[in-house]
TrEMBL record:
Organism this protein belongs to: Polioptila caerulea
Residue ranges constituting the Fibronectin type-III domain according to the UniProt record: 392-480
Protein name: Leucine-rich repeat, immunoglobulin-like domain and transmembrane domain-containing protein 1
Gene Ontology annotations of biological process type: visual perception
Cellular component annotations (GO), alphabetically ordered: dendrite; endoplasmic reticulum membrane
Pfam families: fn3, I-set, LRR_8
Amino acid sequence: RTVLCNDPEMTLPPVNIPVDTTKLRIEKTAIRRVPGEAFHLLHNLEYLWMPYNSLASLSGITFKGLRRLQELRLDGNNLISFPWESLASMPQLRLLDLHNNELTSIPPDAARYVKNITYLDLSSNKLMTLPQALIATWASLQAVPYFPSDNSKIILGLQDNPWVCDCSLYEMVHFLNFQSPNIAFIEPRLKCFTPRSLAGVFFSQVELRKCQSPVVHTSVAKVKTILGSTVLLRCGTTGVPIPELSWRRADGAQLNGTVHQEISSDGMSWSILGLPVVSYLDSGEYICKAKNFLGATEAFISLIITDSDSESTDDPNSSAKGTWSGKASGMEAAAYNDKLVARYVITTSTVPTLGAGAGTGDSLLLPDTAQDSNAQNLLVSPTTGQQEPERMVRSVRVLGDTDQSITLAWKAPMAKNTTVFSVLYAVFGERDMRRINVEPGKTKVTLYGLLPKTKYIVCVCVKGLIPRKEQCIIFSTDEVVSAGGTQKLINVVVISVACVIAVPLTLVVCCGALKRRCKKCFVRKPKDVQESYVTFESLSPGAKAKGVEGEYLTRHTPDESNRLLSARSSVDSEAIPKTEGQPNEYFC
């Protein structure tokens, strides 16, 4: 028996349908819903066609008991979802037509119930993607058709949907491009709808990447920095699609900074959290979260603030491990924490303004230096500062003295007579550091009370400024003393050799001069002997007489040569520049 209902004013399915009905057609009516018990008595029903009604939803029990049903046509309705689990009640179902509805998605569980469907039309809906489980089910059935005896195929209708061509469609595109002869498509030339760059492009022409869950990359788990610095915390992620990065604090406090996003050349997405002028309130755990539709991953970075520029700073965490327990200024902290001394003071052209600091010999306590921090994940820059007379202190060197004292010297060509220098020194690796203020105009100081065979760190800078890394030096007292002793030995040897060579020559010259003087008194020499040529070499770096190069040949009398021999002629004497027109100093 076939029953046809097509009254356009009908709002509910008819009741008392004959139980021997095998084909029921309810078409072009105003029915919006189907009661759950409407078809329970139709055990012989094989074809249920309900096209072009106004159905908006279906209950899971609507098709209960229809075990002989082979075709279910629901095209042309307003269905936004379909009860896929109800297919378990229709084991003989082979055709399911959901064409021209409002379906927006298909749940992954649908793959369990469509294995017996040989004709499935999902075209002209609002589907943007299909679950991978459903694609995998179809792909696994490609090699074995449902009915091996009659060469039947699986027919799929997927056209006219707003497909989003991203990684979620990777499996589907691959499935369509490498389809089996056992599967046929109503329209095989499917097109992308979004993104805009791929709109209208056929699936066969796009190259998509497989989806990947987000992975968070941080090369440092703990960061230490000084109070008032600017800290940049970096967090990177990989994944397909590119995950979204977000920051939050573990304690729920509000972030005191700005976030900048960038993508590196290798495709990694980075999020940089900038914390300007950090305070103790910024200490704590920071969480970087990477998220895409496959899941989310988090990474933790611990920030520790360890320095204070003034005694009046209110430290709410003063009892916490790693904070300052004594008075210290930013200058001492920088000297201890530079690249040679501390890892995170970046050399810049500006330095913070500091107070007068402690008096000569003040003892200061410094915090431990973070050992696991990475300069790529932490950038500490000084706060608003004053401009230093750039590179005023240069060539810091240690001169050997004794194993308990050393002499520290440096050059300051741009310094004035009123410039005061500060010397900061400490046993390398210890927390105690001392400061000595040098008298104005001096560029040398002796440090007493050092420990023998001990490594020290020492920095020199203009008072009130932060020393730079080139103004610091690391030395060991035993090495300095050894080097000083070696230098003294070299000096003694050089002087001894000079004396052995110079004294006999001096005696010979003096005897010759004395002999000539005696002969002058008793013997009158011929005119051609009274004059002689003497070769002189200039000692002065000053200007030479014009037109004279190399050796100087000058004609002198014996009295003149004797006078010249008595002038300053030591090679070790400091050469004094001469102005043009003045005589240079010579030695014979």
